[in-house]
Amino acid sequence: MEIKCPICGEAVELPETMIGVKVRCPLCEGVFMAEDEEIFLLQPARSYAIVAAGSAENGVVECSDPNGLIKWRYPEINGEIWIDGVSFNIPSRFLVIPSEIDGKPVTTIGGRAFYDRQDIIGVFIPSSVTSIEEGAFLACHSIQSVTISEGVKYIAKHAFASCFSLESVTIPASVTNIASESFEECNNLKSVTILGESVEIENAAFWGCPNLQSVTLLGENKQFDHRRSSAFGGCRSLKGIIRNIGGKMEWQPLR
Fold first, then answer.
1. Which of 166, 198, 196 is nearest to 183 (CA)?
2. Which residues, 6+ apart, have CB-to-CB distance to 40 below 8 Å?
3. Which of 130, 148, 199, 210 has its CA at a distance of 20 to 30 angstroms from the CA of residue 100?
4. Are residues 187 and 164 in contact, defined by beta-carbon separation less than 8 angstroms?
5. What is the DSSP-derived secondary structure letter of residue 150?
């Protein structure tokens, strides 16, 4: 059976044998238990922040959270929502960007929306978002994981630069442009997987990631010449990349 997490709304497949047993949501890590058609929350997620209800006033929406009231800042542009951050500090250790607010789609994470937020360790970006703007998560030193859903098309300059704790990232096939310096100086970044076949990886996109050891291009991205590009410049631990050549995965040296 499929049930929804009572905290974040994530659909969770639950075998009948799990009825009456504690379940941990794979997305927000809240703990709940299902008995027949009732769902009981046993343990809140780790300072989980998500828009649940509220009304917009002057570009600010008030919404409920297990730890109290939070406020998302956002402008509405042509019927679409641009997330512009939160209006005051909250202990939102795992941040889920909502897919809609007041029935309108959230399509953009604005420039420097979460700049220098040290209280976030994980980020989930939904499929409604198409653009992550310049410096959106710049200098968020505590972020360890980022989930970018299929649907995002553009990752701007410095979007995740200086996220010192980020260890790996997967770029979905929908992304067509990874801008220069978008993941610059992510000091602990070890693994990058890029799924798209036609994504433009700009020079210095992953510049200065000293511990980056593994780069995999799963899509047959013929336009990307890794020998001429400086996309991975300054990544002193990276000796080569694994890429799709004619449907076969091959390791190729950077130079």
1. 166
2. 32, 33, 34
3. 199
4. yes
5. B
Distance CA 114, CA 140 (A): 8
Tens-place pLDDT, residues 181-226: 999 999 999 999 999 999 999 999 999 999 999 999 999 998 899 8
Q: Quick one: pLDDT band at residue 37, thresholds 50, 70, 90? A: low
Cα 26 from Cα 7, distance rounded (Å): 12
Give the pair of three-digit tokens for residue 226. 């890794």
DSSP 159: S
Confidence band (pLDDT; 50, 70, 90) for 93?
Answer: confident
The whole-model pTM stands at 0.75
Q: What is the mean pLDDT of the chain?
A: 80
What average pLDDT does the segment 105-117 reach?
91
What is the SS3 string spanning 11-70?
EEECCHHHCCCEEECCCCCCEEEEECCEEEEEECCCCEECCCCCCEECCEEEEEECCEEE
Interior/surface letters 102-116, b for 16+ CB within 10 angstroms, e for the rest:
eeebbbbbbbbbbee
% of the chain surpassing 70 pLDDT: 71
Is a pLDDT exceeding 50 seen at residue 69? no
Whole-number Å distance between alpha carbons of 78 and 99: 16
34/32 Cα distance (integer angstroms): 7
Cα-to-chain-centroid distance, residue 154? 13
